[in-house]
């Protein structure tokens, strides 16, 4: 994809030619919402759930939704077909729009809508077979993490912290309790059971959260949502992270110390196989 085709405010255009005004509130304030939808064989994986989260996020910050579900799906299909990729990651972004710089919401402003795509880049086989390393850090982000906002500086700093430690992710703790990684949900396995932080304002409820609940039910694995202490994470038999781009990955090292046996565990193997089976049912 030398110059992918994007949708911007009613038009399909090459990415290199797409332009947004300087006074767009997404640029000035990070005043916007985004969503990322994985496409396998040009079919959206849990697309309805991704759009539902987009709608919730827009509503939570008072941005009028520019399209209904059918309208969004039609635009996504245009971008998918224009770029001709079988497997791709669709990125949607809606900002409040262009207005004179002032903090409060402007009146009668038209939202800016962008849809673009990238080739799907799945985790390498080694990450699945051998697992990945992570580092821990204090969660210093704001208290509305349930909103999928374009204001991602906290996540950027966490991702940079992971990069500086040459690991895959930074797993965050707030006041001694697990929240999430820089761009992933975190799953803790102990005695064959999976625990995850509750779906509250301290995490972004990943679309894989609901999927994991379904896969665990299929596989007869107990999954509970609750507050999880740092000590429990350090004593886990297995850790996993999940996101649209990572799918689900085993964490075998945290802060330089092995997690459990230091190898991907049996619960991960079951969940990963079930995840791939769910994709195959598209």
From TrEMBL:
Gene Ontology MF terms in the entry: transaminase activity
UniProt source species: Herbaspirillum aquaticum
SUPFAM superfamilies with a match to the protein in the record: D-aminoacid aminotransferase-like PLP-dependent enzymes (SSF56752)
Assigned keywords, A-Z: Aminotransferase, Pyridoxal phosphate, Transferase
Cofactors required: pyridoxal 5'-phosphate
Pfam families on file: Aminotran_4
CDD domains in UniProt: D-AAT_like
GO-annotated cellular components: cytosol
Recorded superkingdom: Bacteria
Protein name: D-amino acid aminotransferase
Family: Belongs to the class-IV pyridoxal-phosphate-dependent aminotransferase family.
């Amino acid at each position: 994809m030398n110059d992918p085709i994007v949708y911007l405010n009613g038009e399909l255009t090459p990415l290199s030619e797409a332009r947004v005004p300087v006074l767009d509130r997404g640029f000035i304030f990070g005043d916007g919402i985004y969503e990322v939808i994985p496409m396998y064989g040009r079919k959206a994986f849990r697309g309805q759930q991704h759009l539902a989260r987009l709608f919730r996020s827009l509503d939570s910050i008072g941005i009028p939704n520019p399209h209904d579900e059918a309208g969004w799906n039609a635009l996504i299909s245009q971008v998918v077909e224009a770029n001709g990729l079988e497997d791709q990651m669709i990125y949607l972004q809606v900002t409040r729009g262009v207005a004179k710089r002032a903090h409060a919401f402007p009146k009668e402003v038209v939202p800016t809508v962008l849809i673009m795509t990238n080739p799907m880049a799945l985790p390498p086989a080694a990450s699945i077979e051998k697992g990945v390393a992570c580092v821990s850090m204090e969660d210093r982000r704001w208290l509305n993490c349930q909103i999928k906002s374009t204001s991602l500086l906290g996540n950027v700093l966490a991702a940079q912290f992971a990069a500086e430690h040459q690991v895959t992710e930074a797993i965050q703790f707030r006041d001694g309790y697990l929240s999430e990684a820089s761009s992933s949900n975190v799953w803790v396995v102990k005695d064959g059971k999976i625990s995850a932080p509750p779906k509250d304002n301290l995490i972004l409820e990943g679309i894989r959260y609901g999927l994991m609940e379904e896969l665990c039910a299929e596989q007869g694995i107990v999954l509970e949502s609750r507050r999880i202490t740092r000590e429990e994470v350090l004593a886990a038999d297995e850790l996993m992270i999940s996101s649209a781009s990572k799918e689900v990955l085993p964490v075998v090292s945290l802060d330089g110390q092995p997690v459990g046996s230091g190898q991907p565990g049996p619960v991960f193997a079951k969940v990963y196989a079930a995840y791939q089976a769910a994709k195959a049912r598209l």
